[in-house]
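Schema walkthrough. Field components (list of strings):
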Amino acid sequence: MIINESEIKQMEKRQRAALINKLNGYKSPVLLGTQDLQKNTNLTIISSFTHLGSDPALLGFIFRPLSQDSHGLKNILETKIFTVNFINEPMIKKAHQTSARYPKEVSEFDEVGFTVHYEGAFKAPFVKESSLKLGMIFKEKIDLNINNTHLVIAEINFINTLLDFEHLAEVSDVAVNGLDTYYTVKKNIRLSYAKPNIKLEEL
Amino acid sequence: MIINESEIKQMEKRQRAALINKLNGYKSPVLLGTQDLQKNTNLTIISSFTHLGSDPALLGFIFRPLSQDSHGLKNILETKIFTVNFINEPMIKKAHQTSARYPKEVSEFDEVGFTVHYEGAFKAPFVKESSLKLGMIFKEKIDLNINNTHLVIAEINFINTLLDFEHLAEVSDVAVNGLDTYYTVKKNIRLSYAKPNIKLEEL
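Field assembly_structure (string):
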């Protein structure tokens, strides 16, 4: 079956969004923790982020066009820091609920029932319940003029984990695809570094 | 356990790359199909891509700094089109093998054993064995000066799938984390659109 450009464009708006949001495949849903200068905390689930490089350790996050509702992005631009908190299976429903449009003065931590945790002098809120957390430093915002979204580039300042180094391999047991469907993830195979004309080995 | 910035920076290069590549979480590994103007085909596995928007339907792909070995990116810049081919479990080993550094004149399709497929007048090679394929039109390359990587923005021109619309929900049964570990993915739960003070429902 071919779904061509004009068929995509003619789809009803919500149906198109649901379909196109599937087509970047599986991602890890994470909770982005921020606060403003008055220490009002904000927590929101996102999955549009990707690896930019290992040295320095950079991640890139895509944000919707800045609007009244962009509490998380505004906090990041104000304070230059934020947290990334991975989600395990028991956290899925609470994490999904953070995507509701709460007023700015309401903290999603309180509304959905996650515990605020601060790590040392780092003034952005972590989710205590998360077993893998990243303290992030804002580096750059690049405005993507093609559709008014924003690429935020940030450096991993520190990793805070309940896991030992070996088990850090499994960042979580949950993936997401599209806007509303969560998946359970299980290790299948680890393969050796690929070289021409050398048979791959299972590690 | 806290792994701080200086500990991250002091890690041995490969160990750091392995760790940091884990921290963007699960992604869908896909095969990127390209060809040059002489019709030499190239196929390479990537996972660093993300959703940029639904209207127009845009995906963003991160590429390493341009070098002699950037056959895929060079082909995209030359021809302005490429294909994205999702991977199912039986395809994992062949797909992983495309990450080996083959010379430009060698086609990874032949080397690893995938079948080239062309769709109508679209002059970029698809992987016949893939059950979900996207024909992509290059829109823009943004150079990320912070680490010399490149963000390629491309529009979904058409979707080519063996699945019916209902089953398109599951784009594939495979996710990847880091550079070498593949995971099996199973649907866990689909949740209703979140609103403040409304209980989520399972759909």
